[in-house]
Hints:
Helices cover 29% and strands 28% of the residues. By secondary structure, the protein is an alpha+beta fold. A hairpin with a 3-residue loop joins strand 5 and strand 6.
Amino acid sequence: MTDTLTLPSPAKLNLFLHIVGRRADGYHELETLFQFLNYGDDITLRVTPEHPGVRLESPITGVPDEDNLIIKAARALAHKAAGELPGVSISIKKRLPMGGGLGGGSSNAATTLLGLNHVWKLQMGLDELAEIGLTLGADVPVFVHGHAAFGEGVGERLTPAFPPEDWFLVLKPTCNINTGKIFSEQGLTRNTPKMTIAPAFEGDASRYRNDCEDVVKKLYPEVKQSMDWLKQFGPARLTGTGACIFGRFPTESAARIIWESKPSGITGFVAKGVNISPLHQKLTELE
């Protein structure tokens, strides 16, 4: 049994996000294109046979352990396994901003599920782990499956996709966005026509958009200001419900040139879009 295992917990981008309807349960029907970035958090799992249970070594400021998706994922997996399991201590090196639309919490949950499945030798399949993940959040399954995908439903019905693996400049304006607030706004577009087939890649950018963008820019002037700046250099788009925005570039150097000229006070990073999650690349190396 592996005593200590460190795994990546990557960011995702919604290359587009269309809201195509509202369900009876109040959730929204979405169509979106997920792609991973070669940038994110790191999660370390340390097996502790002398200390049963799951503990988080590095609590996240402002998030009680019982609300942390890492702990929730570990407990849900242990419950499903329904056997006696060795204790595990979990630590996280956090890089992804909270409230950024990059899927940090969902990615942390997925990395925990796949990592513990490995160290506990449970041999659960991806579909089973994704089913557990869906109980934790709508974006967890795409991180569990680990392939860029066209998402439908609340984002959980996934069709593998192969968008270009370009470079991205991601900016995080100085605000945190409440997803529930955005989806409850009266002015939100909820009737974008459904696609008849899953897009193979993003293609003509004018066909796609983020339906949350206008509402977010209206409620959060910091987002509008950052987006207006980034649009000087090409198309810029919100990911998820924000607050992060991104621009696409053909090379790393092109993205870094713009990064160097960004306004002061804005954080962010440059990363490559990848269609196979760095988490899955790492787990494949361990096989």
